[in-house]
Amino acid sequence: MSSTVTIKNPATGEAVREVPLHSKQEVEAAVARLHEAFPAWSRQAASHRAGLLKKWHQLILENQDMLASLITQENGKPLKEARGEVVYAANYIEYYAEEARRVFGKTLPGAANKRLYVTKEAVGPVAAITPWNFPAAMITRKAAPALAAGCTFVIKPAPNTPLTAMELVRLGHEAGIPEDVLQFVNGDGAEIGEVFTSSPLIRKITFTGSTPVGKLLIKNSADTVKHVSMELGGHAPLIVAEDADIDLAVEHTMASKFRNAGQTCVCANRIFVQENVLEEYAAKLAAKAEALQVGNGLEEGTDIGPLINAQGFEKVKGQIEDAKAKGASVLTGARYEEDAEAGTYFVHPTVLTNVDRSMDIMHVETFGPVAPIVSFSTLDEAIDMANDTPFGLAAYFFTENYRTGHYLHERLHYGIVGWNDGAPSAAEAPFGGMKESGLGREGGSEGIALYLETKYLSMGL
């Protein structure tokens, strides 16, 4: 190992653990081992791979408290959310343990003297790059289908949150997955990304993160014509129609907007409320937001943890202050707790009204606990504003009218849509975006398809 780095708790600034940083040569060696392990792993019976995944799933659940504590220490999210993430992450492993045995081929009708067959096989060694906001789930929803399909897998976790990844890999090895089949590397993101994209031994890159980085990975993967799947930025709209159940809409807005202190790619970033229910909705949302407790995620009762770093804090604070300067009203929040010396940054849950398209918060993904509310009169007006973005990851709407619901669903250009549902993610459902929000889907049968090649055999008789 060339060096180490100290991982700190973003709520306190305290050191959690030192982790190794791998040199370029060590990353290249890991890729070589991945390549060497691929033939034997891909030829294992699907039932064998499924059995190891089931053991991994069980070990994760048995170590739920340890993993949740680790997530909170390195990420900052409240412990109750971290526990939920561990279960959610384990669900992907359980689901793909079952899907491993459902990779089907087919026969085709052909000439009388021929037999035509289509089969599926693993694409090859896979390299994954994951973000800090869900340090367990973002890994398992990539690793589980890859391993189930017969691919070998190396993970490069975010520099802020490598500890969860390291523990997940350790538990995978404890479950019996060979060490060369499932690996992790820590280090410089640009350097490791260059190794992954340039190596002919890596046959697929899977990435969750920002759109600019995703575009760079796609471009750099072109020379070796790799498979790529990308879950990139979002700017989710949430529409509340006049016929919505307002209490339900508020409840689900809270679940979407303030989970992980608003640091999720699918959280509601722009809230559009029909004008005749605006006052009721805004008042109820502000009251709920005001009641949320801000603090250290390890402390009982905490609802909102810290932002991950100074850069994230300045972005969120800047959007709030820009909105205020341009005429937005603060119903609650717009309060900050910053300790640059300790490296801790908190933003209190904020609800803004009188928001318009002149404000930065309407155009740039926030990644913080801020709910900007915009009034609209007609559904088409709301749809136009909702679609006015290059992103298309997630969208939400609330209505009790089935005609209104179908009208909105068919006109919103988003890969994930929640109707009266602020938490639509599930292991069995495809997750991914349209436009500049990414390529491919994770979860469901669509998720394992990304790790499979199609082979056609024409056999003469």
From TrEMBL:
Q: Which Gene3D superfamilies match?
A: Aldehyde Dehydrogenase, Chain A, domain 1, Aldehyde Dehydrogenase, Chain A, domain 2
**SUPFAM superfamilies in alphabetical order:** ALDH-like
Q: Does the keyword Oxidoreductase apply?
A: yes
- CDD domains, A to Z: ALDH_F5_SSADH_GabD
GO term, biological process aspect, one: gamma-aminobutyric acid catabolic process
Keywords, A to Z, come to: Oxidoreductase
Top-rank taxon, per record: Bacteria
| Domain Aldehyde dehydrogenase as annotated: residue spans | 4-456
Q: Name one GO molecular function term.
A: succinate-semialdehyde dehydrogenase (NAD+) activity
Keyword Oxidoreductase in record:
yes
Show the NCBIfam families listed in the entry.
SSADH
UniProt record similarity statement: Belongs to the aldehyde dehydrogenase family.
Its protein name is Succinate semialdehyde dehydrogenase
Organism name: Sinobaca qinghaiensis
User: What's the source species' lineage?
Assistant: Bacteria, Bacillati, Bacillota, Bacilli, Bacillales
